[in-house]
UniProtKB/TrEMBL annotation:
<dbReference type="InterPro" id="IPR027417">
    <property type="entry name" value="P-loop_NTPase"/>
</dbReference>
<protein>
    <submittedName>
        <fullName>Type IV secretory pathway, VirB4 components</fullName>
    </submittedName>
</protein>
Length: 482
């Protein structure tokens, strides 16, 4: 058996580049052994006391006030002792224990987390370990929206297999795979949610967001009124008949209304109201027949409901196209569906984490606004949203994604090669002087951890050998598995 020798050069001061191999540093380095020394000559005790071998120090008188200097400073853990082990402080090698739930109320005011950094800086490794495998033993439920593809599957499939969690693979085209109904009764604000203090977005707001993304504009008040009316009629009829309402039914009801459907708008507008929902109905029909066919236009399948009971819920959306509304709609639907499901079970005090790695999808359309509104309910739902982004400059100042980054109480800032990107991170999180150069020098697996208003911590993420196997994504490049 051969031993790999890892060369480790720690930081001499804050901001100096670490010469450290992220892939090999988790293996124990050999302990250096000093060469044998010849025995020292025997010292005679009488001569030693007389100061024959070296000058004998003489003690001096002192007081207890002067003795305070003898109590040397002991450095404390940079992040406290409560939480999940994230890694080690790169300047002192002290362990960093941090968890958004235990830090709430002490160091942070919310439980949302963000990771920002260039491609290949090991953001995914952090999310797969610290916020997935290391938190599952704490009795939490982890929801993963997996967009990145790896060897024909979602990147988190290996983690899901390790904990025996079923992967819910979404694809368009009516292939008969898992389906999540856009109008699932679990999203309704009736029943268990009635009178609750925290009320997530309901079906109407979800349908508005989906249609606005599809049409590329904001709905008018008349269109919203017509949509809400048709949704209410279809839902009540579906419940009475014992089946789930579908978006195709809503589109059909708006295009072919029954007598009396628009009476709710009064005698002056009931005839005109038949035309209010025309564009919305056509958009919903297009989604049901083309863009979202076989995805969210049918009743929720049993495998989706069963998977939601597992501690790790893996939504594999890597097969959905980047262009078009399918991906954004599914991400919004999953977030809303889970938020309402958690609200119905809030009496159990269950903590939940939702991981969204490809966070740039959240910055497009009204789905980002919907997610941001639900994030504001995180305290009541016990839902922590953990998202990852590449560059702040990828989003405009008005983008919902930028707002998500700003509202995160804990930020992991990984290396940025461009000065503008590093400066944007330093400005957004109010980092001290010199942080821009530090961010640009960070290597793989190294980051600045910003916890609330505290000074940043220079952290080195540490993984176990098994975690390195779970987070290995270089199989396609290196031409090997594992």
């Amino acid at each position: 058996m051969t031993t790999k020798i890892v060369s480790v050069s720690e930081l001499s001061h804050f901001g100096t580049r670490l010469h450290w191999d992220y892939e090999l540093a988790d293996e124990p380095a050999p302990v250096p052994v000093a060469p044998p020394r010849r025995p020292l000559p025997k010292r005679r005790r009488v001569l030693d006391r007389a100061g024959f071998y070296e000058p004998r120090p003489e003690g001096g008188a002192t007081t207890t006030r002067q003795a305070e200097a003898l109590n040397l400073a002991i450095s404390r853990m940079p992040s406290g002792h409560e939480g999940v082990i994230n890694g080690v402080d790169a300047t002192s090698n002290a362990p960093i224990a941090l968890d958004q739930f235990t830090a709430y109320g002490q160091d942070v005011s919310n439980i949302n987390v963000v990771a920002i950094g260039d491609v290949g800086k090991a953001k995914s490794s952090l999310l797969k370990t610290v916020f997935t495998t290391r938190t599952l033993p704490l009795g939490r439920q982890v929801i993963v929206i997996d967009k990145k593809r790896q060897s024909g599957r979602g990147e988190y499939s290996r983690v899901a297999d390790a904990v025996q969690a079923p992967s819910i693979v979404f694809s368009t085209g009516g292939t008969g795979g898992p389906r999540l109904n856009l109008l699932d009764p679990a999203i309704s604000l009736q029943g268990e949610h009635e009178g609750a203090e925290y009320r997530p977005e309901g079906q109407s707001q979800l349908v508005f967001a989906v249609v606005e993304d599809t049409m590329g504009r904001t709905l008018s008040e008349t269109e919203k009124a017509a949509t809400t009316n048709a949704l209410s009629l279809v839902t009540h009829e579906a419940v009475a008949q014992g089946h789930e309402p579908l978006i195709g039914m809503v589109a059909q009801r708006m295009l072919y209304p029954n007598d009396g459907d628009t009476d709710v708008f009064g005698p002056l507008y009931k005839e005109e109201a038949r035309l209010w929902g025309r564009d919305v109905a056509l958009a919903l029909r297009r989604l049901a027949e083309t863009d979202l066919r076989g995805l969210v236009d049918q009743p929720t399948t049993d495998d989706v409901r069963a998977a939601l009971e597992h501690p790790l819920v893996h939504f594999d959306v890597s097969q959905l196209p980047d262009s078009g509304p399918a991906l954004r709609i599914v991400m919004t639907l999953i977030n809303t569906w889970l938020s309402n499901r958690l609200a119905a079970r809030s009496s159990r005090y269950q903590q939940t984490e939702m991981l969204v790695e490809e966070g740039w999808h959240l910055g497009e359309g009204s789905t980002g606004l919907l997610l941001r509104r639900n994030m504001k309910l995180s305290r009541g739902l016990g839902l922590s949203t953990v998202s990852a982004f590449h560059h702040i400059s990828d989003f405009s100042l008005e983008s919902p994604a930028r707002a998500l980054m700003q509202e995160a109480a804990i930020a992991y800032i990984y290396g940025q090669e461009r000065y503008d990107d590093a400066a944007a991170c330093a400005s957004m999180y109010q980092l001290p002087a010199g942080s821009v150069e530090t961010i640009m020098q960070l290597g793989q697996g190294q980051c600045l951890v910003k916890i609330g208003s505290r000074d940043p911590i220079l952290m080195r993420h540490i993984r176990s050998p098994f975690e390195r196997y779970l987070t290995d994504t270089d199989g396609a490049i290196k031409g090997r598995q594992g």
